[in-house]
## 1
Amino acid sequence: MADVSLEQASPSFEGDVPPERVPEQYRLGPAFVPKGRYLDLDFMKRELDLVFPRTWLMACRLEELPSVGNYVEYRIGDRSVLVVRESKESIRAYHNACRHRGTRLATDRGRVGSIICPFHGWRWNLDGSIKLQLDAEEFVPRSEEDLGLQPVRCEQWEGFVFICMDDEAPPLLEYLSPIPDVVSPFGLGNMRIRWFKSTIAHCNWKTVLDGFLEGYHIPGTHPQLNRSTRDNLNPATMKEIDIRAWSPTSVYERHSMYQSLGVKRKQSNRLDKDPARRPGAGGDDPRAGIANAVEYIYEELRALETERSVRAAQILRETELPEGKSAGQVHLEIYRQLAIDEGLDWAEIEPKQWAAAGTAWHIFPNMIVLPNQGSSLVYRARPNGMDPDSSLFEVMCLEQVPVADYDKKIDVVPEFHEDYRQGDLGRILTQDLDNTENITVGMHSPSFDGHRLSTEQEMTIWNHHRVADRYLWD
Ligand code: FES
Ligand SMILES: [Fe+2]
């Protein structure tokens, strides 16, 4: 570890559990994560008992609950929670269990006038109070509270509805700190779901998230993103890898982020992702470089760029670049003008705000957000049943809508594809998911003991485990 300090390889925060409290087979080492934390059923059971029920979990977006009575069921491990729109202003969450004999009250998503148990027909108002107890006179009298649906904490941030099953947890905004501040310029609350797909990943729920928590894999997994022309998809040479990719991570008390800079820091003074300064990939014409990159991301990721930013890219191709302005800057100016003309509330985002927002944020435990102006990307992963090597992986593309459409109801229909290859997820996400089974098979090898992480580009992964230890062994 010639150039690496111990502090860099094992960052710590006040309130962390002392390492000796963690059983040896699960104890983190400097930039090292033992594989049992991914592969052992006992470890996953502990996560289901001690992490998920005590943290804030993103259950749905507000637009998934457009009308009074709309509900979404959120399942995690053996628990089920119902998130319900009680009124125009209020969203509530309840444990999804009948007070009579425990039956699950509603499944998946839908809309109801009142919540009706499918077994004996007891009913509840949307505020959780009991409405009908059939043959009530035959039952021992019980308080309203005892017969009412049991509430789960439910709070909102930027259009996301979070739930928390622990009364001791801090309020959502405090829990999310520092993310609300750095993400606020991007107006995720003014975005709506454009598409929402889910699939089964053949790996641990953390493995699939880990693949989106570092940019270190970009040269290996997505070599086309580093190529100088969009059509040349040959694997990058090592020389190109060395000069084109660098994605440092930053860790916080609970959450973490990485930021893809596109070029190695030592060879550039470019320290943030300011899109006005992104490198082009268009040969001699910087306009073509920007336009190619925008079009490629729109076609193959179907998020972060929009139909509007692609139109701006097409205009850019024909626009004379003014003295002293980069193609990236001019693209942003055209995009901005189109957005404003088309009724969007388009913020001026300062270079330092772009820098602070980074590329992707891990919201502990199981959500990732890529903040971006106009369109953002969200990932969520959960264990699939009791198999540590299988997970439910969901991708949500959010897109900013015109101010006039803020109250417009949309029909969100999540698509589920058991096989991600059938899900038309685009080249980039498909490449990421292609890795997952290989990682799982390889990790089971007796020759492999755990992840050896880059202290600069992969500490997001280590940080997840450090934070988890606070819940697992406190
Ligand atoms: S179990 Fe729900 S009404 Fe009987
Ligand atoms: Fe990737």
## 2
Amino acid sequence: MRLNREQLNLIQEKMGVDKLWSYSKVGTFDQCTWLYKLKYIDKIRVKGDNCWTWWGSASHEIMQDWYDKKFNEYIEMAGVLEKKVIEYSLIADKKYHFPDDNQWKNYIANIRHYFANTEIIPFNVINERAVLAVFQGIEKYVFQGYLDSEFVDAEGNLVIMDYKTSSISGFTGQDLIKKARQLIIYAIGVSQHGRMIDGEMRQFPIDKIKVRYDMMKYVNVTFMQKNGNIKVTKAERRNWVGHMATQLRKDLEDIPKDIEKCEKEIKKLERKYNAKVRTEDEKRELEPLIKEQYDRQAYLENYVFDEEKVAELIEQACTSNELTCMPPFIQEKYTVGNCYIDVELTPEVIEECRTELVATLDQITLKSKKGVDTEEAFDRSRIENSDSYYCVNLCDMKDHCKHYKEFKQHNEMFLMEKKPPSDQELLSLLGLG
Ligand code: SF4
């Protein structure tokens, strides 16, 4: 539930501050100080939506409606998605279109797979509840935000879950800690103020809070390797089988080797069985083991395929993105689940986040003080080609940005310089004009 202006004012008053902070403000400053100025000092308003923000909100909405029990049957979720696909296809505004058709097809194939296969959390999931977090720097900072979803798991941990339809790149190591800063702030807030669970206020110290991303476009594929180790690999939903093709080919090609193993095991057991010293009781114990190996051998022999058939099966599985054409023991080997990424909330991670956040907030506060020349205080260095991706592709304020204008002009000039000479210029250059 989103808080209204009066409720936010009440919080402000109760906390004794003259404003509340949102993570998007800090995130904007970190992204580009000039962007912060345009948005929050000059208060230029633009509608920054695009295809990804549209689908991000639509996917959140469907998940939240499911957990809020707005529809009852799991199967309905895929139907609700299809309604969204129709709604989206009717949008004429080009800014909502994907850069190319392939990107759209891949994106929606992943999302369709998610809503047809996502794991249902077996706990009471609450969505969009407000959270506050307080930090002390040169002044008191009160953050206010919303948790996508939260629930208490079987171990009594409060799990903060965020749904992401973006790419998985950068969701590891130190980059993950940076990306998760918003959720870490919320976790700190939960540890400060507790959480209302089933009508009762409960406290959750940091070690009882989990921060998790559900990367909607991906699955975790879990399988056992030959050496007995369990391996988990991440793959895009739309072609997770294709991602496993090499492993699947190996599984099929290994079947004759598994039969050989059975034969060896049978020989070994039969030798034991026929040994002179074997008692009748011992023989009775060995009989089912020998039978088991014979049965397994006979079973596996049904699945010995030549090279051509192996290629055909792999192609069929990849095209359908399912393992139903594979032998049952290969199907059972693979478990496909949601791609969750957990952020480990160690004391160091919490401290690092707190320190960086307060430093950023202090900087913004000092730069925004009355009398400070904000034009100078929030200025940034010129945009270079190497750091232009965000400006060119994602910044919703670029049409109002002097740095972007200069960057464009510079690039246009560069292109003009690179233009081949006209026929007349060429003749002049050669002294023929
Ligand atoms: S275009 Fe680049 S430099 Fe300009 S406001 Fe946006 S992010 Fe900042």
